[in-house]
Amino acid sequence: MDRSNPSDNSIHDTVRVKLGMASGDPGVYVMKDVSGRVLYVGKARNLKKRLASYRKPEAALDIKTRVLMRKVADVETVVTRSEKEALILESNFIKRYRPRYNVNLKDDKRYPSLRLDTRQDYPKLTIVRKIQRDGAMYFGPFASAHAVRETLRFIDKTFKLRKCKRSEFRTRTRPCLHCQMQRCLAPCCMDVHKGDYADIVREVILFLNGRTPELIEKVRRDMEAAVAAREYEQAAALRDKMFALQKTLENQIAVNTDFKDRDVFGLAREENLALITLLTVRGGFLMGTRHFEFPDPMSTDGEVFSTFLRQYYEKAPDIPEEILLPMAMSDQALIVDWLIQLKGRRVRVLLPKRGEKAELLKMAVRNAAKAVTERSEALASELAVRDRLKQRLRLTRRPDRVECIDISNLQGSEPVASMVVFENGAPQKQSYRRYRVRTINGPDDYGAIAEILRRRFRQNASQRPYPDLLMIDGGKGQLNMGLAVLEEFGLSKRLDVIGIAKPDAAKGESVDKIFTPGRADPVLLGGERNLLLFLQRIRDEAHRVAITYHRKRRGKRSMASVLDRIQGIGKKRKEALLAHFGSIKKIRAATLEDLRGVPGMNRSAAEAVQRYFKNKAE
Fold first, then answer.
1. Maximum C-alpha span of the chain
2. Is the dihedral of CA 193, 195, 196, 201 positive or negative?
3. In which domain, by residue range, is 126 found?
4. Three-class DSSP category at 353
5. Are residues 344 and 270 part of one domain?
6. Coil, helix or strand for 244?
7. Are residues 500 and 568 both part of a single domain?
8. Domain boundary among 230, 254, 278
9. What is the mean pLDDT of residues 135-144?
10. pTM beyond 0.90
11. How far is the C-alpha of 115 from the C-alpha of 255, rounded, in Å?
12. What is the mean pLDDT of residues 541-556?
């Protein structure tokens, strides 16, 4: 029996038997392929009834379910005490296994947000890409880095919060350039009353929460009070602030007359792609639009929303009082209870059919339909590039999964390597690997490539699938070394390999060269720019990761060498200081109390660190 064939009859029979053995209790079912990888996770109020739908003859199944069942080699069920427990367990399994055919909301690191820690006396706004439950306030995520920078620029000009880091805030003795440009109150070195600063922070929170009309009214009252008190300079400053806020309000789109907070969702599907559009409405104004796409979801529209809402609101900085959906969910009551528990106040999930709310839903659905069409066309274009690349380079398979190896060193010191992975033209950062070269001393790219490839292909293939195309940053020599290693592992026919080298300006070359096995001259793709750009993007990412890792290694070594000179600072204290502060500059600026607060440090060790840097400065 060929175990590599997922549609093998005996495997299918085993699955059918397991499906028929399920109990009638609520619970979760997990479908796996022949290698044990989880393909799909589902929940059910009655496992027996739900799994019976998968036991139908193949001809009676819809196309997507048919494709899934051909790959399923095993089914596991977990019985729970209630449907609510099944809901929670399903979410946990989806987060843990990231199944291909479930709705998986990707990490929002690429979407910037603004963070404000109001527990500090003089808080500042910072741009972050990961929202954490650390007691601070988060605003966003914003649609782009440009959008968040524009917002921050307006706040800097209008509200004048501090800009310096905490270490600078404690040690600064004179105002910075931001203060001179009238964009910071400089509480670091000027007498700014904490109550006045806190009032400004409250105004910033109103603005970022979309309460601009409310904020304008507050500023107007403050301005009138300043005029009554004959504080005309203060009144003029408040007038300018009010005009600036009114101008931003003109650029916002009013979509509701009741001025409520609500999230509005639309859904559109095309072939193997589902896309959810979110319209964020705050105070009756449309604050932003975001799109979330999911390839190959097996779920119905209602199930898509059920899974998506649980993943989205678990990490969302706030939950509005109303959520508008275009269709009902079978477990809607459970989802609403969960949202209320999360928010601590009433949350309503509505399916409006008429009026302003229905018009908002139509807007969200239209935006989703437009976005899914554009994305489908882009995916088709990307697929055409990979098909053409296969033809142009005479590859044995289409390069849907590409791995690229790059070596980085400085005159042979601290050699490191990176391996980046692209699937369907998109980077898979969770699959990236960074290596320290262990067996090579000096500048020897060939030896380093051989070591890294041996370490990579010693891994279990089921844990890390083979690429369709392996790229090596280098010329003919690097390519031949890569081919030799693949021959050692018996993989020379299993995957395609190419080398990509930069042009030699001394020879008058201007286009990157692509080296392929069995061909003496490089392939030049200058005439097909889109193919070359596809490969260059992957190579440049590998180069970026390798360079970043190499700089980090060199930086750590230089930091460690400085701390090694301080009496009383051994290996453990050195590691603790670097882990706590992150840089020599921050260690140098730290107070005695800050140094003593590091695990493993005492007063004498902290004084030794301060004394060393003071003597060095003198």
1. 93
2. positive
3. 109-254
4. coil
5. yes
6. helix
7. no
8. 254
9. 76
10. no
11. 27
12. 82
Degrees (nearest 5) of the Cα angle 50, 76, 105?
75
Any residues with CB less than 8 A from the CB of 105 and at least 6 apart, and which? 292, 308, 311, 312
Partner residues linked to 116 by β-bridges: 125, 137
As given in the structure block, the two tokens for residue 554 are: 């060199």
Would you list the DSSP string of 46-74? SHHHHHHTTSS-GGGS-HHHHHHHHH--E
CATH number of the domain bearing residue 525: 3.30.420.340
SS3 content of the chain, % helix, strand, coil (to 5): 45, 20, 35
Domain annotation covers residue 390: no
Single-letter code of the amino acid located at 587:
I
Final residue belonging to a domain, choices 48, 77, 97: 97
- Whether residue 326 is predicted with pLDDT greater than 90 in this model: the reply is yes
In which element (H, E) is residue 531 found? helix 529-563
Summarised one tens digit per residue, pLDDT across range 381-427 is: 889 999 999 999 999 999 999 999 998 876 556 788 899 999 988 89
CB 142 within 8 A of CB 121: no
* Residue 186 phi, psi (nearest 5): 55, 55
pLDDT tens column, 252-291: 556 666 778 899 999 999 878 899 999 988 877 787 788 9
Torsional sign, CA 228, 230, 236, 241: negative
Q: Does some domain include residue 182?
A: yes
Sign of CA pseudo-dihedral 473, 478, 481, 483: positive
Are the C-beta atoms of residues 155 and 126 closer than 8 Å to each other?
no
Answer whether 440's CB lies under 8 Å from 452's CB.
no
Contacts of 243 (CB under 8 A, 6+ apart): none
Q: Do 239 and 299 fall into the same domain?
A: no
The domain that holds 350 is classified in CATH as 3.30.420
The residue written with tokens 């109550």 in the block is 195
Model confidence band, residue 226 (pLDDT cutoffs 50, 70, 90) = confident
Same domain, 338 and 318: yes
Alpha carbon distance 19, 50 (integer Å): 9
Over residues 466-475, the mean pLDDT reads 92
Which domain CATH number covers 605?
A: 1.10.150.20
**CA nearest 76: which of 37, 45, 105?**
37
| DSSP category for residue 188 | T
What pLDDT is stored for residue 222 in this prediction?
86
DSSP 354: S
| CA neighbor of 432 nearest in space, from 424, 442, 421, 423 | 421
In this structure, is residue 408 part of a structural domain? yes
Q: 306's torsion region: left (phi>0), alpha (psi -120 to 50) or beta?
A: alpha
